[in-house]
Design brief:
binds flavin mononucleotide, about 15% strand, 9 helices, globular, NADH Oxidase, alpha+beta, about 210 residues
């Protein structure tokens, strides 16, 4: 697939087919992630892959608790909300299933340091900026393979709890969970706000 095709076809997916993904495909996608730019030349990234139901259940157990209280409110905004509210109304009820039902859950860990949690400038956040380059490469490679990804950001203590369950070292942080698989044919289309470069470019000054 052409790069521009992969970029325009990439969508966050929250419903997957019950179809396995070969391990060599997973490896190609992770290799694409590992070729992302890195702030320190060290590529201090590690990937925990969950594919067994029991492992997924254990690592994903903290999601439901955070999401349940929001579900009732969300039912109403699906009817007459903004595009952003409608996105939440589709996304929130699927936060668990979009990972549990994916053939693979990728947990992309990055090595943190004091500056990440106590930033004094934008550059303090370089470790987190680098891992997001990795994550975008994973999304695009998955798209090029005919696959799709779901993604959730852990909230509050959730990330730390997941890291403990999978026995990640203390200085490695989890920026998000990624579900990887084949998108379901009938997944709901989430309305997007779209822009073109012409609307966003400022030559010389803003
Ligand atoms: C930093 C970031 C955090 C996000 N957090 C979540 C999340 O916790 N749960 C979720 O379902 N989607 C999450 N998303 C996905 C967005 O909802 C999605 O990217 C957005 O609606 C645009 O849709 P698209 O990716 O299909 O173009 C997140 C995306 C980004 C970039």
């Amino acid at each position: 697939m052409e790069l521009y095709d992969a970029i325009s076809k990439r969508r966050i997916t929250r419903d997957f087919q019950d179809k396995t993904v070969p391990e060599e495909v997973l490896e190609r996608i992770i290799n694409a992630g590992l070729q992302a730019p890195t702030h320190d030349h060290l590529r201090n990234w590690e990937f925990v892959i969950l594919k067994d139901k029991q492992d997924k259940k254990k690592a994903l157990q903290f999601i439901k608790k955070g999401v349940e209280p929001q579900l009732e409110i969300l039912k109403q905004i699906l009817v007459n909300g903004t595009a952003q509210q409608k996105m939440y109304a589709v996304a929130m009820p699927r936060q668990y299933s979009m990972l549990y039902n994916a053939p693979y859950v990728i947990l992309p860990f990055f090595k943190s340091n004091f500056g990440v949690m106590h930033p004094t400038s934008v550059s303090s956040l370089n470790p987190i900026s680098s891992i997001w380059c990795v994550i975008e490469n994973i999304f695009l490679a998955a798209t090029a393979e005919g696959l799709a990804c779901s993604m959730r950001i852990p909230v509050g203590e959730e990330g730390q709890k997941v890291a403990n369950i999978v026995e990640a070292p203390e200085d490695y942080l989890l920026p998000c969970y990624i579900g990887l698989g084949y998108a379901a044919d009938n997944e709901p289309l989430v309305e997007q706000i779209e822009y073109t470069a012409k609307q966003k470019i400022h030559f010389g000054k803003w």
